[in-house]
Write a structure and sequence with these properties.
With 96 residues, the protein is mostly helical. The protein has three helices and no strands. The longest helix has 39 residues.
């Protein structure tokens, strides 16, 4: 049971990693869209910026939100505790 859960968590981590990488890359592409609009200028630039802002950015936001929730579920499935202070490490830091 534990091994199966770990295998599922590993596959989910792989999906999460690639998904976040794609979303970050798509978010970076918006920069080049705005630069292209700056170079073109005029009404076309306004249309490009409006399309990026109203159509492309919301998709990136929704995708990243879903992927983050998927990543948190994966951490729960794997039994990881990322945002919990470790008492052992805290006591060692206090001794220094």
């Amino acid at each position: 049971m534990k091994e199966t859960r770990k295998k599922i968590a590993d596959v989910c981590k792989l999906i999460f990693g690639y998904g976040i990488m794609i979303v970050l890359f798509a978010g970076g592409l918006t920069f080049f869209g705005y630069v292209l609009a700056l170079i073109i200028g005029g009404e076309t630039a306004g249309a490009i910026c409006t399309w990026i802002y109203k159509s492309f950015i919301p998709v990136i936001i929704y995708a990243s939100t879903i992927l983050i929730l998927f990543g948190l579920a994966t951490m729960y499935l794997a039994g990881e505790k990322a945002l919990v202070p470790d008492m052992k490490k805290a006591s060692e830091e206090g001794e220094k």
